[in-house]
Amino acid sequence: MKFSHKWKLTLYLGACLAVMGAGGAHGASPVASTGQQNEILWDTFGVPHIYASTEAGSFYGFGWAQTHSHGNILLRLYGTARGRAAEYWGEKEEESDRWVLGNGVYKRASEFYHHQPASFRKDLDAFAQGINDYAASHPADIADDVKAVLPVSGIDVVAHGLRLMNYVYIAEERKMLGDPPARKAGGSNAWAIGSSRTTDGHAVLLANPHLPWSTPFFTYYEAQMNGPGFSIYGATQVGLPILRFAFTKDVAFTNTVNTILGAVRFRLTPDGDGYRLDGRKKAYATKTLSYKVKLADGTLATRSFVQRYAKQGPVFDEADGTPVALYVAGLDRPGMLKQYWDMARAHDFGEFQAAIRKLQVPMFNIVYADHDGHVMYLDNGILPKHKNGDFNYWNNLVPGDRSDNIPDGIVPYDSMPKVIDPPAGFVQNANDPPWVSTYPRVLDPKAYPAYVAQTGPMSFRAQMSTRMLAGDEKMSFDDIVARKLNTHSLLAERILPELLAAAGKDRRAEVKAAVKILKNWDMADDATSRGALLFETWARLFMGPKFADFNGFGRQWSLDDPISTPSGLGDRAHAVDLLAQAATETRKLYGAMDRPFGEVSRFHLNDVDLPGNGGFGNTGIFRTITWGPMKNGERTPLHGETWVSLVSFSAPMQAKGLLSYGNSSQPGSPHHSDQLSYLSSKTLRDLWLSRDDVEKHVESVDKLP
Known about the structure:
About 30% of the residues lie in helices and about 25% in strands. It has about 700 residues and is an alpha+beta fold. A hairpin with a 2-residue loop joins strand 10 (about 270) and strand 11. Strands 20-18-17-8-7-6-5-2-1-31 form a 10-stranded mixed sheet. Strands 3, 4, 21, 26, 27, 28, 29 and 30 form an 8-stranded antiparallel sheet that branches. Strands 13-14-15-16-9-19 form a 6-stranded mixed sheet. It has 20 helices and 31 strands. It has a domain at about 490-620: Aminohydrolase, alpha-helical knob region (Penicillin amidase (Acylase) alpha subunit, N-terminal domain, Orthogonal Bundle), CATH 1.10.1400.10. This is Acylase. Keywords: Hydrolase, Signal, Zymogen.
C-alpha cells in the first residue's frame, strides 16, 4: 500500500471510528478525547502534537512522529552515523564510512550514551523505540533499502547527533582536508527584541535558520512535545530527539551558525614511519579498522585500512600526501542533547543560563528571549584555548611539530562574547562575528583573544538585520512580522543611486535600457519586481559569484561604522561597463532585462509551482533564498528560508511560523509542498499551541502505548 493511499485510508477510518465510538492504533477519531494521555494529534499541516503522561513517553512519540514523516531520511542518517553506509548502500559510501570509523564516531557515541543521566538515557531509548515501533507497525511506509538499519538504539540516536555536530558542522571532511579551508558560515537570521522595544511590553523572538533544502542531515522538522510540566513547540533537524529551535510559555531560543573554530588541523612533519614533535621522532599509534561493502551483485566484501593517530588526533592524508592530524574540541563533553533539553525546560533566565553555561553544544550562536522581557546573544561553542595566534592562524593548517600548539582546555562560558539586555533593547545575528550583535555595539574585539572571531567585515544581510531593529521605535508584533518578510536589497539602496548617476550619460543602448529599468525598480526581490534580475546579475559581476568581494567599493567596511559601510563605487567607469555586460547576460539568461522576478524564480515542489520571492543574502536581503542555476526555464531554491517562527510572550502567546518545504519527505505525503503557497504570498501560518486550538485542526490521531 502506497503512503498516499494510507493517508486517505487514515482519514476514512478516522471518520468511521468516530461514528462507531471506537479507537485504534492508527486513524482514530479526528477529534480526540482530552482525557487521552499518550497520543499524537496530527494537524492539517502534518505537524505532530505529542501528548504523553511521562517525559519518556513524549520522546517515544517524537521518535514515532519523525519516522512517520521522514522515516527514510532518518534511517539513512542513522546507518551513516554507524559507519555502515557502504554495507547498506554500496561502494559510493566508503569514503563516508572511513571518515566516521577513523574518527571513532560510533565508539565515542556509545561512551557518550553511557555517560547520560539514567533518566535521559531512558528518554533516548524511548525515542529509538518509537522509531522501531512505527517501522514495525507500518512496514509499507519504510523504503526497502533502509530497512536493514532497523532496529535502532539510544546509541544510534547519540551517534547521529555526534556526527552532525562534530563531524558535519565542526569537522566535515571536505572542510578539514581542503586548503584553503572552506569554513564559511551557513545562513540564518535571529532576533530577540526586549520588552522595552515592543508596543505591548512583551519580548519577541525570531527563529529563522537557512540551510540547503535537499541535504538530508539539514532537513528541519516541526513538532510540539507535551508532557508532565512541559509544552515545547519548535523545530529540529531530522534524527535529533530534542527541539533545537524551541519556545514555551516561559522561554524561547534559536541558533545561527557561527564561525567558531572548534577543530584544528595540524600539518605533521614526516620522519620515516613517524612524525616530528618537539624536535624528536614520534611513532604513530595505529589501529586496523574494517567495514563491509555491498557490491553490485548484492554480496558483501570486507575491507580494512590502518588508521594512524598522532598526539593531536587521528591522521589523514591530504590530496598531495601531506599528513594532517585532526583535533576536535568537545569529544570529552557528552551532554549536547541533554543541554538542549534543559534549555527547553528552563522557566526563566537563571535556569536557562545554568543550562548553557555547561558548554556542551559544540557551536552555534544562541539567541534568547523570555516572558520576563530578557534578551540575550551568546557566541556559543566549545572553543579550544590557545596560547597565541589569531583566527586566520588557527583556521589554516597549523604546524604540528610543536606540542605547545596543542590546545590546553577550552574557553569558559564567562569568557565567551555575549550581550544581555543591551540599552538598544535587542540582539540579532545573521552569521556574522559577534561584535555587532546589538547596535550601538557593546562588544569590543580587543577584549577577547584574537582567535575567538574575525573582526569583520559584516555582511549586507547582517547590516540589514541590524538596521531594521536599530533606533528607539517601539514595534508591534505585526511590525516585526513585516520586517521579517522584507525583501528589500540593502546593496541596491547603498549603491544603485551612484551607479545610475554614473551610467546616466553613457550612450550605449544596453546601458540606457538598463538605467531605465533600474530607475523604475522598487529595490526588492518580489515576484512582480522588474529589474531585480538585472541588478542581481550586475551585483554578481561587481562582487563575485557569492556577492562577497568588497574590493569594488570606494569606502571599505569599518567596525566604527559597521552598518553604513562599504559604500560608493571605487571605479565608476568600470561599474558602468559591468552594467553593460549585465544587460547582455540578463537578456541571455532570462529572455529579457525586465523579466518579472517570479516568472523565472519559482517555488516548485512536486505539483506545486508558484512565483518566488526573496534573494541572495549577501545582496542585503533579509528574506534569504539562494537560487540555483536556470534549468528548464526556471530556477528553484537551493538554500534559504526553511523554518521560521516568530513568537511574542503576550497573553495569550502570539506565534506564527512556516516550514517552507513542508513537514514530511515520505513518498506520497500531502505535507511536502503544502506550505509553499505561504512562502509565495509572503505570509506566515498561525501556530496552534493550545490543546483546544489543535483539536480544531486535527487531520488524524495516533494512539500510543
